[in-house]
Design goal:
Length: 265
Protein backbone atom coordinates (compact mmCIF):
# COMPACT_ATOMS: atom_id res chain seq x y z
CA UNK A 1 0.00 0.00 0.00
CA UNK A 2 1.34 3.48 -0.79
CA UNK A 3 2.65 5.56 2.11
CA UNK A 4 0.34 8.41 3.03
CA UNK A 5 1.62 11.93 3.77
CA UNK A 6 -0.50 14.44 5.67
CA UNK A 7 -0.97 17.73 3.84
CA UNK A 8 -0.61 20.27 6.64
CA UNK A 9 -2.07 23.14 4.60
CA UNK A 10 -5.43 21.36 4.61
CA UNK A 11 -5.38 18.80 7.44
CA UNK A 12 -5.04 19.36 11.18
CA UNK A 13 -6.14 22.98 10.84
CA UNK A 14 -7.60 22.61 14.34
CA UNK A 15 -4.00 23.45 15.37
CA UNK A 16 -1.63 26.33 14.71
CA UNK A 17 0.60 25.49 11.74
CA UNK A 18 3.69 24.43 13.68
CA UNK A 19 1.59 22.23 15.97
CA UNK A 20 0.17 20.32 12.99
CA UNK A 21 3.44 18.34 12.70
CA UNK A 22 2.96 16.77 16.13
CA UNK A 23 -0.74 16.17 15.49
CA UNK A 24 0.02 14.39 12.21
CA UNK A 25 2.67 12.18 13.86
CA UNK A 26 0.29 11.36 16.71
CA UNK A 27 -2.31 10.30 14.13
CA UNK A 28 0.21 7.85 12.66
CA UNK A 29 1.63 9.76 9.67
CA UNK A 30 5.35 9.49 8.99
CA UNK A 31 5.48 12.05 6.16
CA UNK A 32 4.12 15.57 5.68
CA UNK A 33 3.69 18.02 2.82
CA UNK A 34 2.27 21.53 2.62
CA UNK A 35 1.99 24.37 0.15
CA UNK A 36 4.58 26.86 1.41
CA UNK A 37 7.24 26.95 4.15
CA UNK A 38 8.18 30.60 3.67
CA UNK A 39 6.30 32.12 6.63
CA UNK A 40 8.72 30.27 8.91
CA UNK A 41 12.46 29.99 9.34
CA UNK A 42 13.69 26.70 7.92
CA UNK A 43 15.17 25.71 11.30
CA UNK A 44 11.74 26.03 13.00
CA UNK A 45 10.28 23.55 10.51
CA UNK A 46 13.30 21.26 10.74
CA UNK A 47 12.94 21.13 14.52
CA UNK A 48 9.30 20.02 14.20
CA UNK A 49 10.20 17.32 11.68
CA UNK A 50 13.00 16.01 13.90
CA UNK A 51 10.98 16.24 17.10
CA UNK A 52 8.25 14.04 15.61
CA UNK A 53 10.33 11.76 13.38
CA UNK A 54 8.65 13.04 10.22
CA UNK A 55 9.85 13.12 6.61
CA UNK A 56 9.26 16.29 4.58
CA UNK A 57 7.83 14.93 1.33
CA UNK A 58 6.99 18.02 -0.76
CA UNK A 59 6.39 21.76 -0.80
CA UNK A 60 5.85 24.40 -3.48
CA UNK A 61 8.05 27.09 -4.99
CA UNK A 62 7.02 30.67 -4.08
CA UNK A 63 3.80 31.28 -6.07
CA UNK A 64 3.94 35.05 -6.63
CA UNK A 65 1.40 37.20 -4.81
CA UNK A 66 -1.00 34.53 -3.52
CA UNK A 67 -3.23 37.04 -1.67
CA UNK A 68 -3.66 39.01 -4.90
CA UNK A 69 -4.75 35.81 -6.69
CA UNK A 70 -1.50 34.71 -8.33
CA UNK A 71 -1.10 30.94 -8.59
CA UNK A 72 2.49 30.38 -9.63
CA UNK A 73 5.05 32.19 -11.75
CA UNK A 74 6.42 29.44 -13.96
CA UNK A 75 4.56 30.48 -17.14
CA UNK A 76 4.37 34.24 -16.65
CA UNK A 77 6.31 36.19 -19.32
CA UNK A 78 8.28 39.03 -17.75
CA UNK A 79 8.51 37.36 -14.32
CA UNK A 80 11.44 35.06 -15.12
CA UNK A 81 13.81 36.77 -12.67
CA UNK A 82 11.37 36.39 -9.80
CA UNK A 83 10.73 32.76 -10.75
CA UNK A 84 14.46 32.00 -10.68
CA UNK A 85 14.91 33.72 -7.32
CA UNK A 86 12.06 31.55 -6.07
CA UNK A 87 13.85 28.41 -7.25
CA UNK A 88 16.93 29.35 -5.22
CA UNK A 89 14.84 30.19 -2.16
CA UNK A 90 12.96 26.90 -2.39
CA UNK A 91 16.20 24.95 -2.83
CA UNK A 92 17.59 26.52 0.35
CA UNK A 93 14.53 25.34 2.28
CA UNK A 94 14.64 21.93 0.57
CA UNK A 95 18.23 21.46 1.75
CA UNK A 96 17.40 22.44 5.31
CA UNK A 97 14.31 20.21 5.38
CA UNK A 98 15.91 17.38 3.40
CA UNK A 99 12.94 17.54 1.04
CA UNK A 100 13.41 15.70 -2.28
CA UNK A 101 10.48 17.22 -4.25
CA UNK A 102 9.49 20.76 -5.19
CA UNK A 103 6.31 21.72 -7.02
CA UNK A 104 6.34 24.67 -9.45
CA UNK A 105 2.81 25.97 -10.00
CA UNK A 106 2.24 26.96 -13.63
CA UNK A 107 0.32 30.20 -13.09
CA UNK A 108 -2.78 31.73 -14.66
CA UNK A 109 -3.45 32.82 -18.21
CA UNK A 110 -4.99 36.28 -18.66
CA UNK A 111 -8.80 35.96 -18.90
CA UNK A 112 -9.90 35.29 -22.48
CA UNK A 113 -6.30 34.74 -23.60
CA UNK A 114 -5.76 34.28 -27.34
CA UNK A 115 -4.02 31.21 -28.76
CA UNK A 116 -0.90 33.35 -29.33
CA UNK A 117 -0.85 34.43 -25.66
CA UNK A 118 -1.29 30.84 -24.56
CA UNK A 119 1.64 29.76 -26.76
CA UNK A 120 3.78 32.56 -25.32
CA UNK A 121 2.98 31.39 -21.77
CA UNK A 122 3.76 27.80 -22.71
CA UNK A 123 7.12 28.83 -24.19
CA UNK A 124 7.99 30.75 -20.99
CA UNK A 125 6.85 27.75 -18.96
CA UNK A 126 9.16 25.37 -20.84
CA UNK A 127 12.13 27.78 -20.55
CA UNK A 128 11.61 28.37 -16.84
CA UNK A 129 11.10 24.69 -16.10
CA UNK A 130 14.27 23.80 -18.03
CA UNK A 131 16.23 26.20 -15.86
CA UNK A 132 14.55 25.04 -12.64
CA UNK A 133 14.86 21.33 -13.42
CA UNK A 134 18.60 21.71 -14.00
CA UNK A 135 18.99 23.63 -10.73
CA UNK A 136 16.97 20.96 -8.90
CA UNK A 137 19.02 18.20 -10.51
CA UNK A 138 22.28 19.81 -9.38
CA UNK A 139 20.86 19.97 -5.85
CA UNK A 140 19.66 16.36 -5.93
CA UNK A 141 15.95 17.30 -5.98
CA UNK A 142 13.08 16.58 -8.35
CA UNK A 143 10.89 19.34 -9.77
CA UNK A 144 7.19 18.61 -10.25
CA UNK A 145 4.35 20.12 -12.29
CA UNK A 146 0.71 19.54 -11.42
CA UNK A 147 -2.41 19.83 -13.59
CA UNK A 148 -5.07 21.68 -11.54
CA UNK A 149 -8.77 21.81 -12.37
CA UNK A 150 -10.13 25.05 -13.82
CA UNK A 151 -13.20 25.09 -11.60
CA UNK A 152 -11.09 25.61 -8.46
CA UNK A 153 -8.49 27.72 -10.30
CA UNK A 154 -10.04 29.37 -13.35
CA UNK A 155 -7.53 30.14 -16.13
CA UNK A 156 -4.84 27.89 -14.65
CA UNK A 157 -2.54 27.11 -17.59
CA UNK A 158 -1.96 23.43 -16.85
CA UNK A 159 -5.21 21.48 -16.49
CA UNK A 160 -4.84 18.22 -18.43
CA UNK A 161 -2.43 15.37 -17.69
CA UNK A 162 -1.55 15.07 -21.40
CA UNK A 163 -0.36 18.68 -21.53
CA UNK A 164 1.87 18.05 -18.50
CA UNK A 165 3.39 15.10 -20.30
CA UNK A 166 3.98 17.19 -23.43
CA UNK A 167 5.68 19.91 -21.33
CA UNK A 168 7.85 17.31 -19.55
CA UNK A 169 8.89 15.94 -22.94
CA UNK A 170 9.67 19.41 -24.29
CA UNK A 171 11.85 20.16 -21.25
CA UNK A 172 13.51 16.77 -21.59
CA UNK A 173 15.07 16.67 -18.13
CA UNK A 174 15.09 13.58 -15.89
CA UNK A 175 14.65 15.99 -12.96
CA UNK A 176 11.15 17.12 -14.03
CA UNK A 177 8.19 14.87 -13.24
CA UNK A 178 4.40 14.88 -12.87
CA UNK A 179 2.51 15.55 -9.65
CA UNK A 180 -0.59 13.45 -10.32
CA UNK A 181 -3.42 14.80 -8.16
CA UNK A 182 -6.28 12.33 -8.47
CA UNK A 183 -8.79 14.95 -7.25
CA UNK A 184 -7.99 17.37 -10.08
CA UNK A 185 -7.76 14.58 -12.65
CA UNK A 186 -11.21 13.26 -11.72
CA UNK A 187 -12.73 16.73 -12.18
CA UNK A 188 -10.97 17.53 -15.46
CA UNK A 189 -11.00 14.21 -17.26
CA UNK A 190 -11.91 11.23 -15.02
CA UNK A 191 -10.89 7.72 -16.16
CA UNK A 192 -8.43 7.68 -13.25
CA UNK A 193 -6.90 4.24 -13.59
CA UNK A 194 -6.32 4.38 -17.35
CA UNK A 195 -4.97 7.94 -17.11
CA UNK A 196 -2.64 6.95 -14.28
CA UNK A 197 -1.41 3.98 -16.31
CA UNK A 198 -0.70 6.12 -19.36
CA UNK A 199 1.20 8.76 -17.34
CA UNK A 200 2.86 6.46 -14.84
CA UNK A 201 6.35 6.63 -16.36
CA UNK A 202 6.53 10.37 -15.58
CA UNK A 203 4.77 10.35 -12.18
CA UNK A 204 6.89 11.71 -9.33
CA UNK A 205 4.23 12.30 -6.67
CA UNK A 206 0.54 11.52 -6.12
CA UNK A 207 -2.17 13.33 -4.15
CA UNK A 208 -5.82 12.53 -3.46
CA UNK A 209 -9.08 13.92 -2.07
CA UNK A 210 -12.75 13.07 -2.29
CA UNK A 211 -14.62 14.58 -5.26
CA UNK A 212 -16.38 17.01 -5.52
CA UNK A 213 -16.11 18.46 -1.99
CA UNK A 214 -12.39 17.84 -1.46
CA UNK A 215 -13.15 16.09 1.83
CA UNK A 216 -11.92 12.64 2.95
CA UNK A 217 -11.35 10.22 0.04
CA UNK A 218 -14.08 7.87 1.32
CA UNK A 219 -16.60 10.66 0.75
CA UNK A 220 -17.70 11.42 -2.77
CA UNK A 221 -17.87 9.87 -6.20
CA UNK A 222 -14.50 8.06 -6.41
CA UNK A 223 -13.81 4.55 -5.09
CA UNK A 224 -10.15 5.10 -4.25
CA UNK A 225 -9.41 1.51 -3.12
CA UNK A 226 -8.91 0.14 -6.66
CA UNK A 227 -7.02 3.27 -7.74
CA UNK A 228 -4.49 2.88 -4.89
CA UNK A 229 -4.24 -0.86 -5.58
CA UNK A 230 -3.39 -0.09 -9.22
CA UNK A 231 -0.78 2.42 -8.07
CA UNK A 232 0.75 -0.40 -6.03
CA UNK A 233 0.65 -2.92 -8.85
CA UNK A 234 2.28 -0.39 -11.19
CA UNK A 235 5.19 -0.39 -8.73
CA UNK A 236 4.74 3.08 -7.23
CA UNK A 237 7.06 3.43 -4.25
CA UNK A 238 6.53 7.13 -3.52
CA UNK A 239 4.12 8.97 -1.27
CA UNK A 240 0.45 9.79 -1.65
CA UNK A 241 -0.33 13.21 -0.22
CA UNK A 242 -3.67 13.49 1.59
CA UNK A 243 -4.55 16.88 0.22
CA UNK A 244 -8.11 17.20 1.48
CA UNK A 245 -10.10 19.42 3.80
CA UNK A 246 -11.55 17.16 6.48
CA UNK A 247 -15.34 17.38 6.66
CA UNK A 248 -15.08 17.57 10.47
CA UNK A 249 -12.34 16.79 12.96
CA UNK A 250 -9.21 15.59 11.11
CA UNK A 251 -8.56 12.55 13.35
CA UNK A 252 -12.22 11.51 13.38
CA UNK A 253 -12.11 11.38 9.58
CA UNK A 254 -9.06 9.11 9.36
CA UNK A 255 -10.91 5.79 9.45
CA UNK A 256 -10.30 5.29 5.72
CA UNK A 257 -6.52 5.55 6.24
CA UNK A 258 -6.19 2.68 8.75
CA UNK A 259 -5.60 0.23 5.92
CA UNK A 260 -2.52 2.33 5.08
CA UNK A 261 -1.02 2.17 8.55
CA UNK A 262 -2.28 5.55 9.69
CA UNK A 263 -3.45 4.67 13.18
CA UNK A 264 -3.82 7.27 15.90
CA UNK A 265 -1.33 6.77 18.76
O1 LIG B 1 -3.73 20.53 -5.65
C1 LIG B 1 -3.37 21.57 -5.12
O2 LIG B 1 -4.17 22.48 -4.90
C2 LIG B 1 -1.93 21.68 -4.65
O3 LIG B 1 -1.26 20.49 -4.86
C3 LIG B 1 -1.12 22.82 -5.06
O4 LIG B 1 0.08 22.72 -5.04
C4 LIG B 1 -1.68 24.13 -5.46
O5 LIG B 1 -2.70 24.60 -4.72
MG1 LIG C 1 -2.53 18.88 -5.43
Amino acid sequence: MPRLAANLSMMFTEHAFLDRFGAAAKAGFTGVEYLFPYDFEAHELRERLDQHGLTQVLFNLPPGDWEAGERGLASLPGREGEFREGVERALDYAKALDCPRLHAMAGLLPQGASEATREAHLATYVDNLSHAAEACGRAGRTLLIEPINGRDMPDFLLQRQELAREVIQRVGSPHLRLQFDLYHCQIVQGDLIRTLESQFDVVGHVQLAGVPERHEPDQGEVNFGPVLERLDSLGYDGWVGCEYRPAGDTVDGLGWARAHGVVAK
